[in-house]
Amino acid sequence: MTSIEKLSIRGIRSYSPNSAQVIQFDKPLTLIVGKNGCGKTTVIEAMKMACTGDLPPNCKSGQAFINDPSLHDQTEVKAQIRLKFTSLIGQPVVCVRSFSLTQKATKKEYKAFESALQTFDSAGNKQCLSYKCADLNKLVPEMMGVSQA
């Protein structure tokens, strides 16, 4: 059975681009609670993005999904989502998606970089494969044993 183990968020919405925030999912249940505006929805949106590659609604083609560079007096913010899960066959897998938001003179430019999938063989050796975003969008749901949304 598939289970989600960890989620690391860096540079997404209100999460700092300078350090990753890691959420450990306990079995059999993890509750996410907090005040309004503390990032609960961002956690769910980051999980959806890691699994399917779909941006949340109303995020202006990704520009409102990445932390705003002007808040940090920078021209570029790099963001990353890492999701560690156990696949349908019991294999540990880490899905890594990286993004950037660059402040141009009059507009912001969002980029999604090639994504990576890290798997571990029976001896515990790490294997890292780079994928085009579209390929990973199909592969992760298959590894989790779920249909596409």
TrEMBL record:
Q: Where in the cell is it found?
A: Chromosome; Nucleus
Task: Write out the entry's keywords from A to Z.
Answer: Chromosome, Metal-binding, Nucleus, Zinc
The Rad50/SbcC-type AAA domain extends over 6-119
Superkingdom: Eukaryota
Q: Would the keyword Metal-binding turn up in this protein's UniProt record?
A: yes
Q: Which InterPro entries match?
A: P-loop_NTPase, Rad50/SbcC_AAA
Which Gene3D superfamilies is this protein grouped with?
P-loop containing nucleotide triphosphate hydrolases
Q: Which GO terms describe its molecular function?
A: ATP hydrolysis activity; double-stranded telomeric DNA binding; G-quadruplex DNA binding; metal ion binding; single-stranded telomeric DNA binding
What cofactor is needed?
A: Zn(2+)
Query: What biological-process GO terms show up in the record?
Result: chromosome organization involved in meiotic cell cycle; double-strand break repair; telomere maintenance via recombination; telomere maintenance via telomerase
The record lists the catalysed reaction(s) as: ATP + H2O = ADP + phosphate + H(+)
Give a GO cellular-component term.
Mre11 complex
Q: Which family does it belong to?
A: Belongs to the SMC family. RAD50 subfamily.
Q: Which named protein is this?
A: Rad50/SbcC-type AAA domain-containing protein
Naturally occurring in which organism (per UniProt):
Emiliania huxleyi
